[in-house]
Amino acid sequence: MDFPHQQRSAGDGKVVVYPPGVKEITDKISNDEVVKRLKMVVKTYMDMDQDSEEEKQQYLGLALHLASEFFLRNPNKDVRLLVACCLADIFRIYAPEAPYTSHDKLKDIFLFITRQLKGLEDTKSPQFNRYFYLLENLAWVKSYNICFELEDCNEIFIQLFKTLFSVINNNHNQKVQLHMMDLMSSIIMEGDGVTQELLDTILINLIPAHKNLNKQAYDLAKTLLKRTVQTIEACIANFFNQVLVMGKSSVSDLSEHVFDLIQELFAIDPMLLTSVMPQLEFKLKSNDGEERLAVVRLLAKLFGAKDSELASQNRPLWQCFLGRFNDIHVPVRLECVKFASHCLMNHPDLARDLTEFLKVRSHDPEEAIRHDVIVTIINAGKKDLNLVNDQLLGFVRERTLDKRWRVRKEAMMGLAQLFKKYCLHHEAGKDSALKISWIKDKLLHIYYQNSIDDKLLVEKIFAQYMVPHNLDTEEKMKCLYYLYACLDTNAVKALNEMWKCQNMLRALVKELLDLHKLPVSEANSSAMMAKLMNIAKNLPDAGKAQDFMKKFNQVLGEDEKLRGQLEMLISPTCSCKQAEVCVREITRKLTFPKQPTNPFLEMVKFLLERIAPVHIDSEAISALVKLLNKSIEGTADDDEEGVTPDTAIRAGLELLKVLSFTHPTAFHSAETYESLLQCLKMEDDKVAEAAIQIFRNTGQKIETELPQIRSTLIPILHQKAKRGTPHQAKQAVNCIHAIFNNKEVQLAQIFEPLSRSLNADVPEQLVTPLVSLGHIAMLAPDQFASPMKSIVANFIVKDLLMNDRTMGNKNGKLWSTDEEVSPEVLAKVQAIKLLVRWLLGMKNNQSKSANSTLRLLSAMLVSEGDLTEQKKISKSDMSRLRLAAGGAIMKLAQEPCYHDIITPEQFQLCGLVINDECYQVRQIYAQKLHLALVKLALPLEYLAVFALCAKDPVKERRAHARQCLLKNISVRREFIKQNPTSPDKMVSLLPEYVVPYMIHLLAHDPDFTKPQDYDQLKDIKECLWFMLEVLMTKNENNSHAFLRKMVENIKQTKDAQSPDDVKANEKLYLVCDVALFVIANKSTACHLDSPKDPILPSNFFIAQDKDFQNDKEYLSAEMRQQLLTGKPKPAPVLATVNKPIAVPVKRVYPKVVTSSDLTSNSSSNSPLTSTTINKNSNTTIQTSESRAQENNENPIKKKDEAKKTAQNASPASDASPAKRRGRPPKTGTGTALVEKEKTTTGGGAGRGKKRPAEPNPPDSIDIKVSKQQQQNDEGTKRQIDLR
């Protein structure tokens, strides 16, 4: 049996007893021997347990000896490791009381053990197992808990934590990490608290820089914090309270990383920050913008994190954070908007909270913020469309009209991407596609904007996202076919306009290339320059575009091959594939020398993209026709695409009709024409009409190259011209005239049977023949001159227009739908149009026919549409006839030879139609007037008619008229700029020259009866300012002085219409004084010298004698003051007590304020055609009661009132004054409308009650009529000489 070897006593008097076989360990022996003996000691302690009381007492001295300086400071690494293992076992064996009583000694021992734990770093070391044993022993026993009794235990713990975080690496297995965790967590959880220094040793591993250096240390700290969350949370809260609230950044070296730490701690366990979040709410309200920005960035990450529930758990903080969306500091708002994207993607439930704040930010004054709102919404939508609600998409929709190009572009491109993903590729099913089906319409509506950048982007979006040009032809045409069928009316118009603009630009380029083929000359150079300027207008940044186009033109002149490529590109026969090759070749030639950025090349690319046929060629038209055939046969995917077969067929034909204008040569194939012939035989009138028009546009070679098609087409066209709808008849006659060589024979075969079959007793069968005869007369006037004169004189005028055969519907309505108009009136409307077409074909003002027709049309207007005055025609039918007569005079005025013979009286009658009592008449007439003026087809004097719109009681009509004025004046100024003309021609173009016509028109206004009446002068002033405001927007070339001089010159003339009528001339001078008063009040520059002497129209004004000087002021000082400040308030009630109360014969209805008057109108950039009625369309939209009231004869007058009025009226009142086609008054009823009138049909917001008759007929209303019109009203037939 081995006995323990005894040794002298240890330093504290205890005897050191070594285990059996172990000799004394002193500094006298070698390190190897020390290691050898210590291993045996280690084994002895390893085998001992806490219950071995005898051995514990026996080896107590050895335990004390192992803690001596010799061992603790031994330079040998192995010795220190073995001693540490022994000490760890000693703490295990003697637990819970350690054998060491000195605090200093305990501190030295634990610091020594901690230093040995660094050996854990090298897992490949031979001694690693002993290091692991040491760690395991310490963790299992929780030996370091003894240190809680030490005053400076924190130093030991800090060193331990630092050591463990520094040594852990990815080579350690899970057991090592677990023991480290146990060791550290026991210290945190069983101590009295965690000091800031110790907390720093943990938190420093969460800082991004450290985290990236040692991922394992980060994971260890993360796991430690999760395990000790209940204990350490208070310490963490104290740290952040010191830094965030009290501002004591010196408490820790980590103070500058406080927001990074919060983010990491939140990701680890939100419970760690339970007490910290209210402190962040405090920081969000800091006065320091940068500090708020830092907190917002932090909270954005916390709220936006994938699984974060912070918003629901801490609503006050969430609401406070949302408040930062309205922060005064721009970077803070920007950060909030950027956060919204992640939040929408990760937390769809918060979308409702974000929506209102994003709405405000979508109108932020900062461009970058509005831009990022769009990016936020679009990014979320691209990830999942369900993440963005309709309101958020609405914000993007609004921004497509933003004032900044960058924002508009982002919004448009974002919507285009959503459309392509969900509508074109159907990535999320039909419901998602339906949700954003409005995008296609909205994007195309933007083409109405004035900016060329917007137009170019729409074209790019259409070619890349809506109908991708890189698809196969069949797939591409299928996209286009069904897209066109689903577009709304305005989007279709925009798309048509886009193709029209591209076609026009192709024509300009072709004309430029043609000029290159001519010999060099000064005239040729000037023509080239004009073409280049026009081309540059269709490109972005017109200034730079002009320079680049000049350079491009120079290159074209030098490079014949480049010209050849460009000619092929714009050739009607160029295919889409050839176009791609041409664009590539042209671009390649212009690339040299290569540059990082080449603005010249970019500009040329813009031009090439606009003129290249990327969608339509012969193959594409063939594919469209096949799709149309499938729809007709019922084998197409119409229902799957969301359209009915009828809609698809009609839209397909309309699409082909539009393309027949821009790409006519692509249609020339027997297969295409065969399909169109099938469409002609369909029952749908619109389809057949479109098919005829396509033949008309594309069939020039049918007669020579496709005889079979010709033989089939002719009888169909004859049938349509005789018995088709009016529109079909019109197109059929024009088609015959356009594509057949023997057109005279063909037209005669139609004319003769139709002329023989005219029968006024069967008006239902008259409309189509009248349309066909009218167009034949216009297209072949010489061939049918004699028979047409007979038809016009004997049938049109005598038998049809001068007779009322049927009694109209006396329902009192001023307008009705096309279906409700009597056949007789429809025939009369077409008869009026026939007269006009007949005259337009003759173009001869020497015959009596033109003057007689103008007298007839004037009589129609004077009689309010009831030419025979037999009172058989209904009010609504009379409105139709007034509109037809006014439009007819306007149409004739577009032909110079007839404009010369239109008298001022006839011009005034025509102009007054814009103040008609019927809303629809005013609306349609104004649109026709605008369209004719904007084409420069009507003389300038007709622009003055828009001044009368100031009297229109409907706000939307006044707004529309103002837009028309702006557009027309802009067109005229631009035309003058691009086409310099002589001063003589300037009179007919310069917008300022409208003023004399306006003054003359207002001086002869039938409402202007009392020259010194305030209300009438106020109306005159409003009409003048309605026009002058637009003209005086800018004082270009001292135009204000020119206007003043023009008006002053008018005062020195006589009225050519009534040169000897003193009252008429005084009214003219009074209107001039009002005009001078308005100009002087609105301009400070009008008193300067006029740049040139104005020229006045001689048919409206006659020069006075040379000695004549009109210095008289016709506008009194009192009236000037009233016009400036308004009419004085009426006297108090008491002052009028004794005055007699006048009983009016008719009730005056005060003005009704409708919703259309209270709400804003659409954008000024919106198309003028979008709110107007098409020429032949039916105005059937059901509108507000106020509009319905306008078109009722007596909306609320009761029978009893009518009886009383009749009884009280004097016998003299039966002789009522001469009727005048009434304007809608600006006063109408302010009371509720009767229920029975709610069903009144007709669109518009007019309030057109005819004005009550004046008690005494005004002098100025006395309009001369022919003798025939002055005959008795018993229905005697009257005939107008048309020879």
How would you describe what is shown here?
With 1283 residues, the protein is an all-alpha fold. The chain contains 59 helices and four strands. It has a two-stranded antiparallel ribbon with strand order 1-2. A two-stranded antiparallel sheet has the order 3-4. Helix 5 (77-93) packs parallel to helix 7, helix 25 (438-445) crosses helix 28 and helix 44 (823-842) runs antiparallel to helix 45 (848-862).
Spatial strand sequence of the major β-sheet: 1-2
Mean pLDDT: 80
Strand content: under 5%
The outline comes out as elongated
Helix share, percent:
55-70%
Straight-line distance between termini: 158 Å
Low-confidence runs of at least 5 consecutive residues: 1-6, 1133-1283
- CA-atom Rg in angstroms: 47 Å
- Main β sheet profile: 2 strands, antiparallel
State the helix count. 59
Structural class: mainly alpha
Number of beta-strand segments: 4
Pfam families: PDS5 (PF20168)
Main location: nucleus
Keywords: Cell cycle, Cell division, Mitosis, Nucleus, Repeat
Protein name: Sister chromatid cohesion protein PDS5 homolog A
Distinctive features:
59 helices, 1283 residues
In short:
With 1283 residues, this protein is mainly α.
SSE order and pairing:
Layout: E1 5-9, E2 15-18, H1 31-47, H2 53-58, H3 60-66, H4 69-72, H5 77-93, H6 103-116, H7 128-141, H8 153-167, H9 174-190, H10 196-203, H11 208-213, H12 215-227, H13 229-245, H14 258-268, H15 277-284, H16 289-304, H17 310-313, H18 315-323, H19 330-346, H20 351-361, H21 367-383, H22 390-399, H23 405-424, H24 429-435, H25 438-445, H26 452-466, H27 473-486, H28 489-516, H29 522-537, H30 542-558, H31 560-570, H32 576-591, H33 599-611, H34 618-633, H35 645-662, H36 670-680, H37 685-698, H38 702-705, H39 707-723, H40 726-739, H41 743-756, H42 767-779, H43 785-801, H44 823-842, H45 848-862, H46 875-893, H47 896-899, H48 904-911, H49 919-934, H50 955-978, H51 983-986, H52 994-1003, H53 1014-1031, H54 1039-1051, E3 1053-1055, H55 1062-1082, E4 1101-1103, H56 1117-1125, H57 1155-1158, H58 1185-1190, H59 1199-1208
Antiparallel strand pairs: 1-2, 3-4
Helix pairs in contact: 1-5, 5-6, 5-7, 6-8, 7-9, 8-10, 8-12, 9-12, 13-15, 14-16, 15-18, 16-19, 19-20, 19-21, 21-22, 21-23, 23-24, 23-26, 25-28, 27-34, 27-35, 28-29, 28-31, 28-35, 29-30, 31-32, 32-33, 34-35, 34-36, 35-37, 36-37, 36-39, 37-40, 39-40, 39-41, 40-41, 40-42, 41-42, 42-44, 43-44, ...
